[in-house]
Structure formats: structure tokens, C-alpha cells
């Protein structure tokens, strides 16, 4: 064990103790040029500085997710690096201690992963780059297959991600850059463009306060769009006065909904939580330059937030952003 000196974390995932089978939460984080690290000592009091370097030499990890149906499984997507022209998907079945390569595609893009909580064992992978594609796994990431009839003109941003339909197993929404949001139907085995949907979406999440409501973040402005009917119609939910900012991530679970705003200037970057229908800035004390956001719920239903900042390291909050603690091992 050692204390890593980490640059900004660009991908991370967490497993609450109730999932990992212990009394402490697990956090896996990646920092470019320094590697993939794991901490299994996250508690309600914070995260200590006992970080382990994991045995994975990939230099460009783009996405990490915890498998909601398999307590010790993590899945990891990578992108093309300076010394490689391949995007890959890896799986760990032992909390990140070892990794096996499950899919390799020649590509100049990267894999962004997501899970389907309505369907056990099903996962999705969005491949970005000049030849974007969507892959799915129905056996907890053991094998992957391409999904049919992907629009030939598809253009996908590197930070885009898919959104699984929680009531229709296997159905999924995809944000195509300048082409709106598309919906895949398992029954029809085809993709359909959602008319009049926002054209510059990169991240989407289900609003936990309202069934069938999708929140979508714009990649060109600090604007959240909302659809209350599973994407059929859209209205602007909220927009922040940050002219050179964009929404880098929208995240939602059973206790909170959050949006990470990334701006060219430090003052334009912020983390907002949606409380009682209102978006509230909870990051004023840490002055973030946004990189990534992770949130989870521990066994006692305390909400944990992890934010990777550009200049000030990794921060943790267990009180819905009212207070923040710097994570040891991630120095200023």
C-alpha cells in the first residue's frame, strides 16, 4: 500500500459496503499517466489515504462502472492512446485486483460504459470516434455483441453516454451529436430518432423525483433539458449564466440528482444538486474545475458524493454537499 500522488481523476466508480460484502465502501479511480488505484476503506467519516495501485497498464481509461448485479464486479472502458489504435473493455470479478480483456476494437475513440438496472447481467458500451457504435452484454460483461442498425451518420462526442430504459429491459437512449436523441427498441431491433429532441446532448439521467422524466445535459451550454414523457417532448429545465460552460455529467440515484458544469474559467465550473425541484450550487467551497463526478448510497442511506477537481484534488461529501473533505492521497 502507498499514498499515490495523483493528477485529476478522469474516471472513477464506487461500490457501497452493502454491495461489496464488507463494512466499508470501495472506490476505484484512474488518473492519466499515473494509473488505476483502489481504496477499500471509504466510510461515513471519509476516505483514508490507503490506496493500492491496480494491475492494469492501460494509459487512457475513459469509463469505470460497478456492476449492480454482481457485488465484486467492475467494468472498465479505454480509448485509443498515443501508442495504441484500439479501444478496449476490461472486467474485474474481484474488486479490481485483476482484470481480463473482454472486447477489443480498432478505433480512434473510446468506450463509455453504462448498466441496465431493469435487466440483470445487461450492460451497454458506447464507442466514440470516427466510427461510433453501440455494444451490449447480457452476461455481466463476459462477452459483447454489436447492436443492430446503428445510424450510419452517427456522430458521438467523447464524453457522451447511453441511458438505459428502467422499465423496458434492453431499450436504450443514445445522444447523437447534432442529430438529437435516438431510442433503441429491442422488440423492433432498430434505432429511431426522437423528433424535436435537443441536438447537443452528451449526458442523460432519470429524474428520481418524477417517473418517466429524463434530464439531459448540453455539451455546448450550461443547460439542462427535461422530458417528462420518456423523450417525446422536451423543455428547458434550467440554464446557468456561464457562457463558455457546458454540462459534463448528469447523475441520479434514489436520493439525489446532480449536474456537473465544466467551464473554461474556474468560476464557471460547479456541482449542482436538485433539491425540491430547485438546482443548488453545492461546490462553492471547493472552487472546482470539473473533471468527474461519482455518487452512491451507503447501507445506512447516507449519500456520498465524490468530485474530481482540476486543481484541488478529489473531494468527498456525505451530507449532500453541505460540507466537503479533501480525500487523502490526492494533494492540492
Put the structure in a nutshell:
The chain has 332 residues and is mainly beta.
Essential attributes:
single chain; mainly beta; 332 residues; 1 helix; 4-stranded antiparallel beta sheet; 5-stranded antiparallel beta sheet
Give an account of the 3D structure.
The chain is mainly β and 332 residues long. It has one helix at 17-20, and strands at residues 11-15, 25-31, 35-43, 46-47, 52-53, 61-66, 74-78, 86-92, 100-106, 111-115, 123-127, 133-137, 145-146, 163-164, 172-176, 180-185, 190-193, 201-206, 214-218, 223-227, 235-239, 245-252, 257-263, 270-275, 278-281, 290-297, 303-309, 313-317, 325-326. Strands 1, 2, 3, 4 and 5 form a five-stranded antiparallel sheet that branches. A hairpin with a 4-residue loop joins strand 22 (245-252) and strand 23. The longest helix has 4 residues, at 17-20. The chain is globular. It starts with 10 loop residues before the first strand and ends in a 6-residue tail after the last strand.
